[in-house]
Known about the structure:
The complex is a heterodimer.
Chain A: H1 9-19, E1 42-47, H2 53-58, E2 64-70, E3 83-84, H3 87-91, E4 98-101, H4 108-117, E5 121-124, H5 132-145, E6 149-151, H6 161-167, E7 178-182, H7 207-211, H8 237-253, E8 263-267, E9 281-285, E10 291-295, H9 318-325, H10 336-342, H11 350-369, E11 373-376, E12 381-383, H12 386-389
Parallel strand pairs in A: 1-2, 1-4, 2-3, 4-5, 5-6, 7-10
Antiparallel strand pairs in A: 8-9, 8-11, 9-10, 11-12
Chain B: H1 3-10, H2 26-38, H3 40-48, H4 60-72, H5 78-93, H6 98-111, H7 117-121, H8 130-140, H9 144-151, H10 157-176
Amino acid sequence: MQDRKGISRRRFVQASAGAVAGFTIVPRHVLGQGQVSPSETFGGALIGCGGRGNGTFEGLGPDVKKLAICDVKFLEHADNKTVYTDFRRVLERKDIDVVAIATPPHWHAIMSIAAMEAGKDVLCEKPMTRFIAEGRAVAEAERRTGQIFQIGTYGRFSADRRKRKIMASGLLKDNPVVHIQRGGFKVREWSGMVNPKPQTPPKSLDWDMYCGPSPLRPYHPHRFGGSHRGYWDYEGGGLTDMGQHYFDGFQYAYAKDDTSPVEIEPHAPTAHPEACGMWGWVEMKYADGLTLVFDSGEWGAPYDRKQPRDIRIEDFDSESREKLQSLPEPEPLIRFPEAIRTRKRAGGNADVSHRCVCLMHLANIAIRVGRKIQYDPVRERIIGDDQANRLVNQPMRAPWHL
Amino acid sequence: MNEKLTELINRLPDPDDRGFMSSIDKQVVDEVAEGIIAGGGASIRAVAGLLKPPAEGGDHKARYALHCVAIAVGKDRDEQRQMVAENLAKCIEGDLPDSVKAYLIQELQVVGTSAQVEALGKFLCNENLCELAAQALMAIRRGAAAQFEKALPGAGPTCKLTIEQNLQLLQERRRRR
């Protein structure tokens, strides 16, 4: 048998696929970390077993067998064999190759980084993170470990590839596009309570672990179980929750996967410090002129500064139009099940998913400080507003940190 | 607290039947914040005096009012920002329940500057408040390390972990720079 050293993982998989037909199932961990078993089976774990849990796990693909589930609400029946409350115990298992993370977002970055450092591939529910610096840390971990990371939304996989080809060409100097998303942000639905009276947590719930890196607040059921979306401690309202769905495809089609808006202006009342609440619209401008607008339609007057405007062929001069004809098609995007088999980078990897969720984080920062902010997409810092900048990289409760 | 200030704060929205601030007028909110700022330190302290422990509740307007003030002075209003932050710092040094101080410390995380690090540093050995004080110091950053170093020898197990972690994070950031 040929020495595997020096052979890329993908080539090894391709070479062995035919040769091993008819072999009995060999779990991946038997072959050691980084190897793919002939039968292509993967041990999987689901971390966060709420509403989205099973759906997220299904995204791992048909070759992943669920070996463990983990949730802070399993205190009364955790056996630390198949049912866990502490994700760190799950990540210690050598037979787990991939994890689906479907906890509230304040845990996504820490768990994703820990999982990748433990040699696991990660499918992480959206929104990817709670604040901007978390996303950069996840992207660095993805690069450092070489593991697969995919966000649990797939807008880019059905996005307009022709538009992507044109927008990524660099032939358009001043971008006249105005993209307006009207409604669908569930602003009122996923608001937080401003007057919650503390209650005693259920016996089955490890409330301290639930709060994790976020401040340890008094328990209230509205902070848990789906309605967590309405609190800055865990997410960022309906905007963050829905936005990654809407703008994953937008970022891809308009070739904005490696940048962020430079100017963000909100129309909203000052936000509550703990509870997400009402906002009207947010206008964001990219450095090339593209305007992206979130119009909630749930508060105040609707956005009326600009009309929607897509890219047109006449936006290009004749020389550029000719060049457009000969551009290569964009690379196909790899879905998670294929990525873990081929070790090709997933289409919704950490870098692009981070840039996507940054849209919602920037909009929320502008809403929270109630003023226009300027953003440096390279340094990933807000310019000239230290109060707003404090929301870019928020401190975490020990022992948790990035 | 004077009648005018009470009237001002009462203009802020009541939560709806689900506890959400779904009916909110930006102009009113801005006017309330500016009214409190115009009242100076005495107004800040008076609003802070309305805060109650979360179990008692009923203080959501005062809480929101203080936050709106902290945000309003957050950019290009240095003098007023110092006034707000100084008075919040005075309040946390006073005789208030820890659960009320927790909220004020959280607001110092929003509006505080290096002038408040010493006031915050005093809570680094308080088991109930060290985490929030540490987070406020980390947000302010400038002058934080000295407070962590000063508090470390006297800290109990919970606070010690918090202090050591944040000191390490600050050192790491310094190294990266």
